[in-house]
Amino acid sequence: MKIKPAANLKIKSIKGTKGSHLSGGLKRKLFIRIFIGLLLLVLTGFMTKEIYRKLCHCDFFQITAMRIDGNRMVSKEQITVLSKIDIHSNLLAINMDQVKSLLESHPWIAGAEISRDWPNRLLITVKEKNPVALLSRTTGLFYLDNKGRIIAAASPTQELDFPVVTGLESFPFYATRSTRTPEILKDVMGLLKLAARNNSILPEQNISEIHISENGELLLYLLERPFPIYMGADGDISTKYYRLAKVLKNLYKTKEFSKVSYIRFDYQKDTILVGKIGSDSRHRG
């Protein structure tokens, strides 16, 4: 059986049809339309910028009042000066991020929120750092936050009703953004945190001084009667705090508190020695 060869296939190239390419006239019209559109866009942007510039100098948006909330340690006058805003400032022209950055550069201000109250009032809300104690230094008193970090130097015009930490007058406190508490202050901060829970027997208001000795031992002094309470350097500070509260409660109850000359946690293990005028007593547990 013979197989016939396939017929020769003729392939013709398909030329582009008439009109598949834009004519020169259409190209010119399209170019003109694009050019006019871009020109209008540029002019609109220029006009918008010019309008914004004029509004930034318009008396209608001139600041007439500034409301400041959240401040306690920093005065409103200090915040106003720090923000670099006055009655001549324009509300629309204010750089909000810049004002926020300026305010947060203050050692007392942890955060700041700035908002506009149209047409001419500015609202500033600051969040200040929370002091828990005063640190005695060779150069004076400094506020400490709850992480044991120095906030700022204390001023006689500011609130000074805080426990005073002594014994670290020459300790090298370095400026740092670390959130970690310095090792030497961990027990102090732990003690103050417990006292801040307002235990009726041993609240923070009744702590006058916490002294740190050279070997790291804590000595506690109460506001009522400044006799030394030797807390020692070893052991859990939480356990010591509640044991001390228990001893003080017993002393108040038996009306022996006025006779106490010292309290020692470093006498014997699980034994607290209470020195009294004329005699000593031991509390176990």
What would you note in describing this structure?
This protein has 285 residues and is α/β, with parallel strands linked by helices. The protein folds into two domains: 61-128, Ubiquitin-like (UB roll), CATH 3.10.20.310; 131-284, 3-Layer(aba) Sandwich (Rossmann fold), CATH 3.40.50. Helices cover 27% and strands 28% of the residues. The chain contains five helices and 13 strands. The strands form two sheets. The chain has a ten-stranded mixed β-sheet with strand order 6-5-4-7-8-9-10-11-12-13, with helices on one face. It is elongated. The model is unreliable at 6-20 (pLDDT under 50).
What is the topological layout?
Blueprint lengths: L23 H32 L9 E5 L6 H8 L12 H9 L4 E9 L3 E8 L2 E7 L2 E6 L4 E4 L10 E3 L19 H10 L11 E6 L5 E5 L5 E5 L4 H17 L6 E9 L2 E6 L2 E6 L1
Backbone shape: elongated
- Using only C-alpha atoms, the radius of gyration works out to 38 Å
Using the 3D structure, state the CATH architecture of the largest domain.
3-Layer(aba) Sandwich
Number of distinct helices: 5
User: What is the mean predicted local confidence, pLDDT?
Assistant: 84
Strand order of the largest sheet: 6-5-4-7-8-9-10-11-12-13
CATH topology of the largest domain: Rossmann fold
Number of strands: 13
The CATH first-level class of the largest domain comes to Alpha Beta
Run of helices and strands:
HEHHEEEEEEHEEEHEEE
How much of the residues is beta strand, in percent?
25-35%
The CATH superfamily label of the largest domain reads: Cell division protein FtsQ/DivIB
Main sheet summary: 10 strands, mixed
Instruction: State the separation between the terminal residues, measured CA to CA.
Output: 117 Å
Show unreliable segments.
6-20
